[in-house]
């Protein structure tokens, strides 16, 4: 019998990535000391067991951190451009493994094959970005107020970076952090989501080759496996100066408090509740493409997925009808088959949350425009496939105020000026991604102004979903305030030092203070 896995060459992909039936201990040749209970990974695509990993015990954890700390002592001495060369080689290895890793991402997480490849491409892109950056970790020079003095600032490696990642970007988020952390001279300890542990093993196996070929200490890249309990060990650990955590706002609030309690640094990338404003001057065709991809791409499981459409009353019916017609065309099924638009949710718990959201929006006064539902039968055996749904709602509904990690799109109506739409758009606790569809320059600029969108990402004539690695990525309010990836996001991975050098034979004090002895 042909299974989905065999049809799409999954066995070969797993072999190439060094995934075994049970992945334990240091068998991968990289720093993965996990020897605890078994964690099984089932595919949401077909419900089948892919492989298992062993979870990290408290003793394994201790060994990992000690190995990372030892590696840091050596790694920080390597000049930054040479660290960039390591990252360049890692990017090359990712190119060689793009097909296999993209397939695993798709099969273990459930996103489309194209999105799986796209995620690996993001990893390659951040490597390229980091290589150039490794020669540009600039500090400033300043003029001293004292004669014969020179002042400047420089950036030094920070230490161990703890990375906690979510299931929906099971490989890219790790690389956004590691590529920048490595060129900065830091070493990394990664706790991937317990829902996608094999992606963690695969990435670790790829970097292991680079570490080995360059005769570097393996503790530069460490992996710990398990659920929130192992994450808690990481966040409470005073030996880890920076915790970069990607996931739900619920998780971020716990992590932020723990890390702040020991005065550590945290970089938080949390939930979104993203909206597109559609003004009377919008290009309707572009709007529909942007909104549908934003709402149903990755089955609505992107932090930047479009959850709310805020449409001007004058074009409301037109946009609504076009959307409903577009939703009728959607093909739901195996994400490895490129003919399908929508794959599964990550697990049956996510399906329950999706169904609950649809019940709630009706109970709170909304109206379903495109019916949802859980699919069953041939091809849907995992129980994770759902129909993308659209509901008319009000921004004040409790369910609209929350991020439901599923393909549920709420249509909201506004009247009058664009400021009314902006007020609705900003009227949620989260602040990740936002967009306006308009050909009106004045409206676009008002949306981007200081009184416009309050999100970390604000786009014009592009949807909310997806971002390029060159820009700093992240959001405000309950999205956590962190920025990673491009621009100057590297600064959080380093410690800044201000240096003043006196090249005179006197010791003048600052602020004109006299201290004669
Ligand atoms: P989640 O919060 O359930 O889990 C994320 C990670 O946190 C997992 O590795 C989990 O084990 C760990 N974790 C959970 N509780 C913890 C604790 N108390 N201490 C330490 N670690 C803990 O999120 P998820 O369901 O995997 O992912 C979906 C969420 O992630 C959505 O809210 C989505 O918006 C968000 N997300 C945000 C971004 C972003 O860049 N802003 C990117 C991807 C996903």
UniProtKB/TrEMBL annotation:
PROSITE patterns: ALDEHYDE_DEHYDR_GLU (PS00687). CDD domains: ALDH_F7_AASADH. Its EC number is 1.2.1.3. The keyword NAD applies. The active site is at 269. The keyword Oxidoreductase applies. Homotetramer. This is aldehyde dehydrogenase (NAD(+)). It comes from Flavobacterium potami.
């Amino acid at each position: 019998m042909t299974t989905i896995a065999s049809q799409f060459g999954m066995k070969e992909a797993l072999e190439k990535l060094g995934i075994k039936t049970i992945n334990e201990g240091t068998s991968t040749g990289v720093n993965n000391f996990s020897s605890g209970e078994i964690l099984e990974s089932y595919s949401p695509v077909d419900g089948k067991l892919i492989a298992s990993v062993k979870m990290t015990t408290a003793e394994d954890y201790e060994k990992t951190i000690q190995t990372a700390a030892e590696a840091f002592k050596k790694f920080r001495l390597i000049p930054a451009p040479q660290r960039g060369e390591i990252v360049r080689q890692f990017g090359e290895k990712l190119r060689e493994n793009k097909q296999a890793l993209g397939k695993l991402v798709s099969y273990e997480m459930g996103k489309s094959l194209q999105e799986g490849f796209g995620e690996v491409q993001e990893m390659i892109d951040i490597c390229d970005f980091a290589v150039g950056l490794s020669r540009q970790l600039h500090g400033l020079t300043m003029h001293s107020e004292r004669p014969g003095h020179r002042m400047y600032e420089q950036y030094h490696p920070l230490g161990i970076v703890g990375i906690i990642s979510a299931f929906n970007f099971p490989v890219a988020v790790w690389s956004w952090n590691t590529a920048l952390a490595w060129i900065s001279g830091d070493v990394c300890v990664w706790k991937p989501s317990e829902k996608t542990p094999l992606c963690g093993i695969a990435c670790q196996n790829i970097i292991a080759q680079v570490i080995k070929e360059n005769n570097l200490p393996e503790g530069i890249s460490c992996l710990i496996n398990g659920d929130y309990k192992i994450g808690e060990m990481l966040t409470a650990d005073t030996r880890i100066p920076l915790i970069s955590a990607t996931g739900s706002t619920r998780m971020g609030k716990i992590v932020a408090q723990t890390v702040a309690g020991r005065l550590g640094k945290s970089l938080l990338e949390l939930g979104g509740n993203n909206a597109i404003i559609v003004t009377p001057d919008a290009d309707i065709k572009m709007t529909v493409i942007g909104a549908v991809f934003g709402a149903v791409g990755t089955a609505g499981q992107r932090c930047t997925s479009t959850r709310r459409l805020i449409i001007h009353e004058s074009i409301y019916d037109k946009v609504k009808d076009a959307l409903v017609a577009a939703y009728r065309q959607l093909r739901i099924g195996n994400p490895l088959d490129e003919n399908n638009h929508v794959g599964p949710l990550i697990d049956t718990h996510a399906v329950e949350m999706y169904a609950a959201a649809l019940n709630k929006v009706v109970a709170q006064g909304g109206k379903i425009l495109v019916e949802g539902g859980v699919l069953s039968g041939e091809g849907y055996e995992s129980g994770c496939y759902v129909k993308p749904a659209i509901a008319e709602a009000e921004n004040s509904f409790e369910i609209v105020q929350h991020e439901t990690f599923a393909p549920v799109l709420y249509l909201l109506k506004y009247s009058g000026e664009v400021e009314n739409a902006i007020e609705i758009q900003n009227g949620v606790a989260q602040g990740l991604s936002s967009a306006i569809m308009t050909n009106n320059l004045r409206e676009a600029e008002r949306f981007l102004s200081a009184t416009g969108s309050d999100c970390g990402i604000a786009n014009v004539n592009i949807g909310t979903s997806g971002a390029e690695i060159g820009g700093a990525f992240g959001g405000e309010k309950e999205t956590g305030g962190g920025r990673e990836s491009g621009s100057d996001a590297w600064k959080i991975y380093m410690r800044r030092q201000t240096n003043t050098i006196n090249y005179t034979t006197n010791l003048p004090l600052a602020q004109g203070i006299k201290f004669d002895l």
